[in-house]
Amino acid sequence: MKGAEAIIKALEYEKVEVIFGYPGGALLPFYDALYDSDLIHILTRHEQGAAHAADGYARASGKVGVCVATSGPGATNLVTGVATAHADSSPIVAITGQVPTKLIGNDAFQEIDALGLFMPIVKHNFQLRSAKEIPETIRSAFNIAKTGRPGPVHIDLPKDVQEEELDLDKYPIPAKVELPGYKPTKMGHPKQIKLASSHIFKAERPVIIAGGGVNIANATSELMQLAELCNIPVCTTLMGKGSFPENHPLALGMVGMHGTKPANHAVSESDLLIAIGCRFSDRITGDINSFAPHAKIIHIDIDPAEIGKNVRVDVPIVGDAKLILNNIVSNLIKISMNNNGNREWVEYLQSLKKSCTPKMDYSDVPIKPQRIVKELMNVIKELNIERKSIITTDVGQNQMWMAHYFKTHFPRSFLSSGGLGTMGFGFPSAIGAKIAKPDFKVISVTGDGGFMMNIQELGTIADYNIPVVICLFDNRTLGMVYQWQNLFYGKRQCSVNFGEAPDFVKVAEGYGINALRITNPEEIEECLKEALISDEPYLLDFAIDPSEALSMVPPGGKLKNIIDPITEHPNEKVICFDEIKRRFLEKGSNKNENALLEELSESEKDEGIKV
Amino acid sequence: MGSIKSEKKEKNNETHTHIISVLVLNNPGVLQRIAGLFTRRGYNICSITVGSTESPNMARMTIIVKGNDKILEQVVKQLNKLIEVIKVSDLSVNMCVKRELCLIKIHAPNESSKSQIIQYTNVFRGKIVDLSQESLTVEITGNSDKINAFVDLVRNFGIKEMARTGLTALMRGPKILKSKKS
Ligand SMILES: Cc1ncc(C[n+]2csc(CCOP(=O)(O)OP(=O)(O)O)c2C)c(N)n1
């Protein structure tokens, strides 16, 4: 059998169902082997789309997503997607073609140092040098991607290795792989767990920060047990959304720069912080010195390097969140902790929560984004698809509006690029999510800027008829940047406004995709219903108010100091090409070509003298 | 209580030199992986030595880093995360044997300077490994202080060229670096 066939066999052994990819010269043997296989291959329109789709697939399902790209430019196009998965601990295996081994290092056509390129943005990577390494390497790659703290693994696959003959009987796919340097800790240290339990027992103002790790570890029911048993309020990070139902009385919403007031107050005033699977990024902590100033901190994480990296920790517990929470809960049951504690604290936060219920039922034209979020929640409820829907967001204001206002109740149902903040993630990741969960409704909420970064994937959903519903928050600006320029750079708007183009409805129609433009808030509900009930791809182009801003904590500020900014309408003047041309010609007009040549030879003379 | 706390803080922020011994799988790219980690995270490497070990599929790196306790903790943890790293150990400076090798080509145009350098070399238990009309090449092994002292001593003759390996080290006693503790 050829190496390429062995790779397919090894992928099948890992129960891979679908590959997102884009072919090329260095992958011809691989694609030829795919011809005879039952693996589904989704041809995206750009390798970045393939990587994000594999990532979305992984986030929605918890299974390893697979993407492939050819050598050189294929590999570089994959980079943003792989880095995005890395920043959010999403398990994907990325395979790149490579020039034949004997040409490596010769700057061959479409050669790039893929091993070096991916090294800093993957959990691990391999370069295959001979076909007999295939069975063990593929096994190891999947093992590494999905265990411990999950993450992307990259495999560089030279063309001749794909063509080399391999006897799979002689080099069988191993049932288990031995990686001497890789032994993730699962069980938490019993002593630390005991200590944590006693801190929780004694605390008067405890609060939980649930991060993405809770979703990844499938520890949501354990989190619920702990919160309810001890009456502890819960806030989440962006990645932690869905780990705790946001309609629960103990839920405080998201914490941090774009967090809710009750969440930020809870953290700032707490005497015990229980952080689970979160990494205390600067978007969560704000000014690190005034972060949770009165609290002892318990930090549970599977990655020991995350503990103590950004904040001081009193009780570090390394291991799997599900097991550790389970242990803490049974400890607390043993010492008969009950949920009557923390009453005043919880009541205080709940009253704070009530006092800042956000207004969402605007009927303004242009539409306020809050109104869309509200209608979206209502329609999802009405159609009874709360358990069967997945939201992906892009990056920017659209992401923060969704994070802030959209109530998420189930794990793996809110997918967003948190760590890297990659514009262009939202739409292709929705494609992956829909393929992972074909019976779910998948809604891609995106800004116009981010949508245009991977707009070509409209071709993918059109060709395969993948019924993703795109909710485009169309404000014709790079909203988030525009807001920062307004707030922190004296309203000097610079390169944040788009003009009239494109007509998104026409673009979608060009791909044969249903599209509606919505300018009146009263039409939102009906259009959402139409799109969600149909089993077809849809683009809903909502014309929203570009001056709408988000409440936020200024970067590096104290979490309690939330500001509610008001921005003005975009008024940036965009210069057109005619003007650019005029300015260039004006500069150059007093020099004709001969004069330029003379100037050139003058400067050569100058250099000659210097030497 | 307050004073103890502040003392502790001061200690944490003090910069020390650490000897980190890393046992790695001898795979292509492993050096780049480790060097890349240091660059990316902004850790300062003073020196790094790599060489084979008792087992052919493993190599030992000895990395000298400067940093406070917090940085060092991160260095060790981040190294441990690498799949090809079998074991990382922060060798406490006093509990290990450490050696560096240095080759120095010294200007020695006449007999008197040659014989003087040979004498110095003997005192430092070094070796003359090459000789020419106007130069001597000396090999010196020892800890860095010893080598620094020798270098200072012969500086006045004129050092034409010098190559130092950087420190390499092993723990004292029967303990060895084995697989990563989990
Ligand atoms: C690939 C990439 N480039 C640039 C940025 C910086 N950035 C963050 S938010 C943002 C504006 C996003 O605009 P849009 O997609 O229209 O969404 P909105 O904020 O208007 O909802 C930009 C440019 C980024 N996060 N990712």
Automatic annotation (TrEMBL), chain A:
<dbReference type="InterPro" id="IPR039368">
    <property type="entry name" value="AHAS_TPP"/>
</dbReference>
<dbReference type="InterPro" id="IPR029061">
    <property type="entry name" value="THDP-binding"/>
</dbReference>
<dbReference type="InterPro" id="IPR012000">
    <property type="entry name" value="Thiamin_PyroP_enz_cen_dom"/>
</dbReference>
<keyword id="KW-0786">Thiamine pyrophosphate</keyword>
<dbReference type="InterPro" id="IPR012846">
    <property type="entry name" value="Acetolactate_synth_lsu"/>
</dbReference>
<dbReference type="GO" id="GO:0009097">
    <property type="term" value="P:isoleucine biosynthetic process"/>
</dbReference>
<keyword id="KW-0479">Metal-binding</keyword>
<dbReference type="Pfam" id="PF02775">
    <property type="entry name" value="TPP_enzyme_C"/>
</dbReference>
<protein>
    <recommendedName>
        <fullName>Acetolactate synthase</fullName>
        <ecNumber>2.2.1.6</ecNumber>
    </recommendedName>
</protein>
<keyword id="KW-0100">Branched-chain amino acid biosynthesis</keyword>
<dbReference type="InterPro" id="IPR012001">
    <property type="entry name" value="Thiamin_PyroP_enz_TPP-bd_dom"/>
</dbReference>
<feature type="domain" description="Thiamine pyrophosphate enzyme TPP-binding">
    <location>
        <begin position="394"/>
        <end position="542"/>
    </location>
</feature>
<feature type="domain" description="Thiamine pyrophosphate enzyme N-terminal TPP-binding">
    <location>
        <begin position="1"/>
        <end position="115"/>
    </location>
</feature>
<dbReference type="Pfam" id="PF02776">
    <property type="entry name" value="TPP_enzyme_N"/>
</dbReference>
<dbReference type="InterPro" id="IPR045229">
    <property type="entry name" value="TPP_enz"/>
</dbReference>
<keyword id="KW-0460">Magnesium</keyword>
<comment type="pathway">
    <text>Amino-acid biosynthesis; L-isoleucine biosynthesis; L-isoleucine from 2-oxobutanoate: step 1/4.</text>
</comment>
<comment type="pathway">
    <text>Amino-acid biosynthesis; L-valine biosynthesis; L-valine from pyruvate: step 1/4.</text>
</comment>
<dbReference type="GO" id="GO:0003984">
    <property type="term" value="F:acetolactate synthase activity"/>
</dbReference>
<comment type="similarity">
    <text>Belongs to the TPP enzyme family.</text>
</comment>
<dbReference type="Pfam" id="PF00205">
    <property type="entry name" value="TPP_enzyme_M"/>
</dbReference>
<dbReference type="InterPro" id="IPR011766">
    <property type="entry name" value="TPP_enzyme_TPP-bd"/>
</dbReference>
Automatic annotation (TrEMBL), chain B:
<comment type="similarity">
    <text>Belongs to the acetolactate synthase small subunit family.</text>
</comment>
<comment type="function">
    <text>Catalyzes the conversion of 2 pyruvate molecules into acetolactate in the first common step of the biosynthetic pathway of the branched-amino acids such as leucine, isoleucine, and valine.</text>
</comment>
<dbReference type="GO" id="GO:0005829">
    <property type="term" value="C:cytosol"/>
</dbReference>
<comment type="pathway">
    <text>Amino-acid biosynthesis; L-isoleucine biosynthesis; L-isoleucine from 2-oxobutanoate: step 1/4.</text>
</comment>
<feature type="domain" description="ACT">
    <location>
        <begin position="19"/>
        <end position="93"/>
    </location>
</feature>
<dbReference type="GO" id="GO:0009099">
    <property type="term" value="P:L-valine biosynthetic process"/>
</dbReference>
<dbReference type="InterPro" id="IPR004789">
    <property type="entry name" value="Acetalactate_synth_ssu"/>
</dbReference>
<keyword id="KW-0028">Amino-acid biosynthesis</keyword>
<protein>
    <recommendedName>
        <fullName>Acetolactate synthase small subunit</fullName>
        <ecNumber>2.2.1.6</ecNumber>
    </recommendedName>
</protein>
<dbReference type="InterPro" id="IPR039557">
    <property type="entry name" value="AHAS_ACT"/>
</dbReference>
<dbReference type="GO" id="GO:0009097">
    <property type="term" value="P:isoleucine biosynthetic process"/>
</dbReference>
<dbReference type="InterPro" id="IPR002912">
    <property type="entry name" value="ACT_dom"/>
</dbReference>
<dbReference type="Pfam" id="PF22629">
    <property type="entry name" value="ACT_AHAS_ss"/>
</dbReference>
<dbReference type="Pfam" id="PF10369">
    <property type="entry name" value="ALS_ss_C"/>
</dbReference>
<dbReference type="GO" id="GO:0003984">
    <property type="term" value="F:acetolactate synthase activity"/>
</dbReference>
<keyword id="KW-0100">Branched-chain amino acid biosynthesis</keyword>
<dbReference type="InterPro" id="IPR027271">
    <property type="entry name" value="Acetolactate_synth/TF_NikR_C"/>
</dbReference>
<dbReference type="InterPro" id="IPR019455">
    <property type="entry name" value="Acetolactate_synth_ssu_C"/>
</dbReference>
<keyword id="KW-0808">Transferase</keyword>
<comment type="subunit">
    <text>Dimer of large and small chains.</text>
</comment>
<dbReference type="InterPro" id="IPR045865">
    <property type="entry name" value="ACT-like_dom_sf"/>
</dbReference>
<dbReference type="GO" id="GO:1990610">
    <property type="term" value="F:acetolactate synthase regulator activity"/>
</dbReference>
